[in-house]
Amino acid sequence: MIANETVSSYLSRLASNAPTPGGGAVGALHVAHGAALISMVAKFTVGERFEHVQNQIEPLIIQSEQLIEEALLIADQDEYLFNDLIQAYRLPRDTQEQKAYRLQVIQAATKTATIPQIRTVKLSERILQSADTLVLIGNKSVISDVAAAAESAKAALATALVTLEININSIEEKPTKSELIDYAKLAEKLIQFADTITGKVRQKLKPQPNNDGQLNSTLSGKPVAEKLKTTIQHQVAVLAQQDVTACLAVILATDNEATIWYVNSIKKAAQSQGIKCEVYTLHNPSEEALKTLILELNQNTAVHGIILQTPLPKNININHLINLIDKNKDIDGANPLSLGYLSAGQKAFAPATARAVMEILDYYDIPLAGEEVTVIGRSNVVGKPLTQLLLKHNATVTLCHSHTQNLSQRTKAAKIVVVAVGQINLLKDSHITTDSIVIDVGTNIDENGRLVGDVAPEVAEIAHALTPVPGGVGTVTTTLLLLHTVEAAMSLSNANVLNVA
Ligand code: NAP
Question: Cα of 377 to ligand 1 centre, how many Å?
Fold first, then answer.
């Protein structure tokens, strides 16, 4: 049995001038390769991110294992049926009777020898159907192997097709001939199907051109936020079953119009997701008044998340206040304790902006393990917690700040560059390469009153990918404040330990 042979022994038998194994067995083994690749991709499509497709993934794994077994049996079947055919051709043909008998046996053996080819076509069809499903739902990191599976099936089909065509010519029996013609046509159609699947995979791996025909490597925050909203909706429904409504308290102690607008936008977003948002507006409060409010909110069991919105009046020392926010309600990671827990690799809420960067990288399947990442800006709300999250995902991180020398050398050495400074045009084309993936955290108002990031416009033409401003990190940040609130509500209402990454 080929299944029990070593690869090198099988290959030397194949390379010899013995008649078997031959093309038929090779075709069947192409099927086995395809099925194994399908199984492998399906097994990579597991875990929390793929929970919603598990009912499609599990049957694919079971089916692929069966296909591998069947394909190996076909390879053996092809060998012995071809041997029968050879024996038929070796029959004596000295007399008319012998000739007639020999012809009859050859016809019968030829007919049976087509069985492995027909089975190869049928199995290849099943592999291509699985591959077509995996292009849509499979883990993108291994999606190229779906194309490899489709190409294996295509090779199997091409091999079977050639043999079928030979046999169509030599078989005289009409029903068999027409059955073989049908399978040959099916094989041709499936070869085209395989090309379509490979095309879909290649398309998926390519940056998409936009309407101007330019490379669209924009890492929009919108779909990331939409995906997170699905999780929020699910958790809001779970909380509703326990009669809990997640509630976010925002302390607002400024007349700054932009800040008031921002807080109102959080409130609107919260309400649209079924989350309560209470804004505590204080005009010129004392530090004591703010302390009292924070301590009250810590005690209030109906409140699950607390944000102390900046800026605060000049006479207030923010450090005296953020230290008071209950760690379990610190949904924007403001309390230095949260940063401490993150640094120690323990569970705590990261500032929403830092997590937003991580969610964007995850959504666009940008691998981090072993990759160089340069972060510009070392604030407690972005640079430092983000560094911790990146380290947790095994990236090698360089954290830069206003005293960093040779910034462009450090940014060019990294695959991913995150800019969180608050200076228009800080990151220029001289800082990046065509392979750079740039995450722009900065929010600035330019001379025309428009919201812009820290990245100069020309970077978009060079970088491999870039988050837009607006519509990038900020979009995801707001949604994460809400997700953190429901996560806090889940752990507080279940009296659980903090259940966040
Ligand atoms: P921050 O506290 O002012 O920190 C700025 C950081 O940039 C500091 O670490 C500073 O270094 C560094 N820096 C300043 N000039 C530099 C230079 N020339 N080269 C390299 N590094 C330099 O600011 P932040 O609160 O982290 O915010 C940063 C930006 O992100 C702002 O535009 C802010 O509006 C934006 N932001 C956006 C969101 C969002 O959701 N999109 C959320 C939060 C913040 P030193 O430490 O040496 O001073």
Answer: 5
